[in-house]
Structure formats: structure tokens, C-alpha cells
Write a structure and sequence with these properties.
Layout: H1 5-13, E1 18-20, E2 27-29, E3 40-45, E4 55-66, E5 74-84, E6 93-99, H2 118-129, E7 133-137, H3 153-170, E8 174-183, H4 185-200, E9 206-212, H5 219-226, H6 237-249, H7 266-272, H8 277-287, H9 291-294, H10 299-302, H11 304-309, E10 321-326, H12 334-346, E11 351-356, H13 361-367, H14 369-380
Parallel strand pairs: 6-7, 6-8, 8-9, 9-10, 10-11
Antiparallel strand pairs: 1-2, 3-4, 4-5, 5-7
Helix pairs in contact: 3-4, 6-7
């Protein structure tokens, strides 16, 4: 791999920053990383099993990012950089800055340590066919030491934006023309990244944001979903609630999980620290966990710091937003997603929202591809986007 001289010099200065873990694939950080946010510190070829079909150069990089928990200092973060095959267009490949959905909070769950799921492989392969390279951050605490601060909007945004800075500065044949794209947790991360970008990364040429299954929490919406009848054998939202609490425990020493979860849910809470999402989902199913039998009456009050960290800094995005929602989404209930559409539209964001009839959280991802292709073509070419703030199932 070829580095720019300045980046190479900095990488030599911080060469001792990261060590690859022998068992989990995690990377341990030194106490005092030096450099600047968006600085590459190491790079290696991505294993063939971990890249995308028909890809060209594929890398796993480590770079420095601002600590999103504290808003200052630097932490190492890992990411994947995957380029299409063939000759790049004039100026280089434009970039999809990919924000992944929930994988867990443990380092071994990091996307760059695992093969792509069949759904995401198909989805991102379509973006590569459109002529985009993929830069996908793992997020702070995934692939690196510590617990991932799950759904922390500032963490996700800083990590995504810094991953693109690092890739542009060090990987040849990339172009500073960027689509921010994310699903589920990553849908929220994509929105957050677009919201933070004008002040945190003003030099990045972001054209638009594509989000599916994106969460949005207000006290009113939280009360709405928490007090809804919950007689199902299990509630998939419990998986995310367990991760949210585990993420909070990693940086809030005053947090007491017993103040959020009942005794029935505590074994799953403890397991969430190490189980990746499919394994934790199986445990939530096996334990029969739902809001009614798993959450204490004051759970929202005791999760308040984590819920606050989910908030976006602004609802007004400088570039257009595509939102895709499954009508039957049980993982991120449609009222949360449509609440985001309503708030963003009210703030003056150009939003094109779609609701996909009879589709769930997973199915919506690839079903949205034709619509997001048209949206992307418009924003990449500087054309006006047709807004839609009151979508009906289609």
C-alpha cells in the first residue's frame, strides 16, 4: 500500500499505538496516542473472506478519532476500505461512508473482524456497482479496547467522519465526494454524521445521506413504545436496550443495571457484554424477555445518560436525506423512524421518505435500493430532490 509522505511520517511516530489481539481481534491502545483525528496509524490487507464480491483493493485500517464520549482526546478506531475492481474514474472513486447496524458491544463483534452478512453483502455490492468505494468504520470500542458506547451519536459521527478523512489521506484513487449510508444503528449514525459534519469535518464534500431503519428517541416516543401492549413471547427491542445499558456501563461508573432491569432480565444483561447480536437475540428469545417482564418502572430515568447521548446535535441537515422504513419493522418501530422524518422536515431538511409495505427491518434494506439509486443520482449530480415528508406504504 502507498502512503502520502506526511501520513507515513506520522504513522512511524505512532507505530506502537496498536497491537493486534491474538484471540478476539481487538486492538489495544497506548495511553497517549499522538497525531490528529483522521490520521492513519496502520493498514493491512483485509482477508478475502471479509471483503465484498468482485472487489479490488481491500484494507483494514486503524486511525485516530476524537473520543466521542468526552469530546476530546484521541482513540484508535478500525475500519474497512474496499475499492471496486478496475480503473477508477477521473478524480478517483466517490465514497460510501458506511455506518453499520447493531453487531454487539464486544470487540470480536466488529464488522472488520467478520465476514459480511448476506444482506449487507448484497446491499454494498450494489453501491460498488454504482461506482462507489466503501469506507466502513467499526465505531469506538469495536475492534479496539473498551466497551462500545452503543448508540452514542457523537461517537458514531466522529468515527465515521474520521474514517473518511483517514482513507482520503492515505488510500490512492479515492475522491472527496461522499454519500453517508447507514442501516438501523447505522441509520442513526448516518444522520448524526451528517448533522455533525459542518462543524466537525467541513472539508468533507458530503452530497447526501441514505438511512434505513434509523432510530429517533424522544421522551414521548419512548413512553409510547414502552407502554404499548407487549404480550409477545419476546420483544426484539430488548436486545438493543441491553446493549444500550452495557454501553453506558463502560463509561458511567454510577450506573446500576438493577435499576433498569428485573431479575429475569439480568442474566441477559450480563451476557450482552460478550454476545454478538444474533447470539443475544437467541438468548432474549429463549428467556422470553419483553418490556413488561424485563424493565423496571424507572428504567428510562436510569438510562437517561445513554438516551441523552442518542440525541442529534441538530435536526437540520445541510444535504438531502433519504429515509427508508419497513411498515412491519419491529426492531426500530415505525413511530420512531417517522418521528425522525417529521422532526427533520420541520427543521428544514430536504427529506425523501419511503415506507415499504409489509416489509420488516431487514427486508427494507435491499428493497430500498432502487429508490436510493435515483436519490443518489440526483444529489451526486447536484439536481433537486423531490421531498416527501408524509410517506404512505408503497
Amino acid at each position: 500500500m502507498r502512503f502520502l509522505p506526511s501520513v507515513y511520517h506520522v504513522s512511524r511516530l505512532v507505530a506502537g499505538l496498536c497491537l493486534m489481539g491474538a484471540s478476539s481481534g481487538a486492538i489495544a491502545a497506548s495511553a497517549t496516542p499522538s497525531g490528529a483525528a483522521g490520521t492513519l496509524t496502520s493498514s493491512q490487507s483485509l482477508p478475502v473472506a471479509f471483503t465484498l464480491p468482485d472487489a479490488g483493493r481491500s484494507l483494514r485500517i486503524t486511525y485516530l478519532s476524537t473520543n466521542g464520549i468526552t469530546g476530546k482526546g484521541l482513540v484508535p478506531v478500525t475500519a474497512e476500505v474496499i475499492l471496486p475492481q478496475g480503473k477508477p474514474p477521473a478524480g478517483g472513486w466517490p465514497i460510501v461512508a458506511w455506518a453499520h447496524g447493531t453487531v454487539g458491544v464486544a470487540g470480536h463483534c466488529a464488522p472488520s473482524n467478520n465476514p459480511w452478512s448476506a444482506r449487507n453483502k448484497r446491499y454494498l455490492s450494489e453501491w460498488m456497482k454504482r461506482g462507489f468505494a466503501v469506507v466502513g468504520t467499526d465505531y469506538q470500542g469495536l475492534g479496539t479496547s473498551g466497551i462500545h458506547p452503543y448508540l452514542n451519536a457523537r461517537v458514531e459521527a466522529y468515527n465515521l467522519l474520521d474514517s473518511v478523512k483517514a482513507a482520503l489521506a492515505s488510500v490512492p484513487d479515492l475522491q472527496n465526494k461522499i454519500m453517508i449510508v447507514g442501516q438501523s444503528q447505522g441509520g442513526g449514525a448516518a444522520f448524526a454524521s451528517a448533522a455533525f459534519a459542518p462543524t466537525y469535518a467541513p472539508d468533507l464534500n458530503i452530497r447526501g445521506t441514505v438511512a434505513t431503519g434509523a432510530p429517533y428517541i424522544t421522551p414521548e416516543l419512548l413512553k409510547q413504545i414502552a407502554t404499548a401492549p407487549d404480550n409477545a413471547p419476546y420483544n426484539p427491542v430488548m436486545v438493543y436496550t441491553l446493549y444500550l445499558a452495557q454501553g453506558l456501563s463502560g463509561y458511567d461508573t454510577a450506573f446500576k443495571p438493577e435499576s433498569v432491569f428485573t431479575a429475569k432480565a439480568m442474566p441477559a444483561y450480563r451476557a450482552a457484554a460478550n454476545l454478538c447480536v444474533h447470539e443475544l437475540t437467541d438468548k432474549v428469545k429463549a428467556d422470553g424477555l419483553n418490556f413488561s417482564n424485563s424493565l423496571q418502572p424507572d428504567f428510562a430515568k436510569n438510562l437517561a445518560p445513554a438516551l441523552k447521548a442518542m440525541q442529534y446535535p441538530t435536526m437540520h441537515l445541510a444535504q438531502p436525506l433519504f429515509m427508508g422504513t419497513g411498515e412491519l419493522d419491529k426492531d426500530v418501530p415505525p413511530p420512531l423512524q417517522l418521528g425522525l422524518v417529521k422532526a427533520a422536515c420541520a427543521a428544514g431538511t430536504v427529506v425523501q421518505a419511503h415506507v415499504y409495505k409489509s416489509l420488516n427491518h431487514d427486508q427494507t434494506v435491499n428493497a430500498s435500493l432502487p429508490d436510493s439509486a435515483s436519490f443518489t443520482q440526483d444529489v451526486m449530480n447536484g439536481q433537486a430532490v423531490t421531498p416527501q415528508c408524509t410517506p404512505t406504504p408503497e
